[in-house]
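Continuing the series of single-chain predictions for the mutant panel. This is the parent chain; the variants come on the following pages.
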Amino acid sequence: MLNLTDLPVNATLHKSPSVIIKVCVVIPFFCVFLCCIVVMLHIFASHRQFLETSRYILFASMLINDTLQLMFSVLLFLLVMGQVKFALGLCFPLLFMSAATFQNTPLILATMSLERYVAIFYPLQRPAAWRSDHIWIIILSLWLISCSFPIIEYSMGKRYPEVNAFSAPVICKSAIVNSSPVQTLFKAAVNVLCFAVVAVIILFTYVRILLETRKMRQDKVSVSKAMHTVLLHGFQLLLCVLAFTSPITEALIVLRADWLPEDITFFNFFCFILIPRFLSPLIYGFRDQSLRSYIGKTFLCCPNKVKSKVKVQVQDNLFSF
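Parent structure:
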């Protein structure tokens, strides 16, 4: 898990201007993201037609997952920046949730790709697990898988013998619970495997969908949308993968620029954690005609006429998104 909890203990003590700048960059960025997410979740909760479509349910779960991931990551960022110390027993849940939600993102991306594949190739004989009233089983399975990885990883390591989990104050850093070579190897293997599986799934499903769309409908607008969606999926997955390869990017930055270690870590955190999560609502939300209509109505107080068009747009989006 890439975060700012690996900063040196004294990194922020004599860098108060730098700390202030970093906080002033992260907090507004997070607030804008949270505003977009709240609006979209409010739309989902207020309109039943979204809750009856598997794709939108998966999209809502991704929004919730990314929101939790950013909340815990930004909280850890602020705690490290402020050099706040507290018991390891309170630190562990923060690190666990941050790692689990981070790992869950590529799994949800792969599931959304498979859902599109099933919806287009099996429109009348959709498997029960992919129906809107059973999709929660898949969502819970993804959470179970993503939570199992940090549990196994943390169970492989040993806590520092001098640290008392209930009383000794510590800075909440991943090194406290993830310090052994075995854990590092396990994390690298899981990340490589996860990336490989998700990349294959996304490439396979969207290429098949694109070819099928060309065959079924000679609609250049729909084909163009599908093609752009493939590129956006690939870009977001690339950003997630770059987060997995943070040691390589850090080494390259050290060779090319004379940056401080904490500045390099902050750069990786901002570019490969915050930005991909900020792009998620833009990719899946603002490109969707139904959601875009309601978002415009919410922010711009548009007329209520968009409501009558939503059900038709939801059906049309099965092929155009």
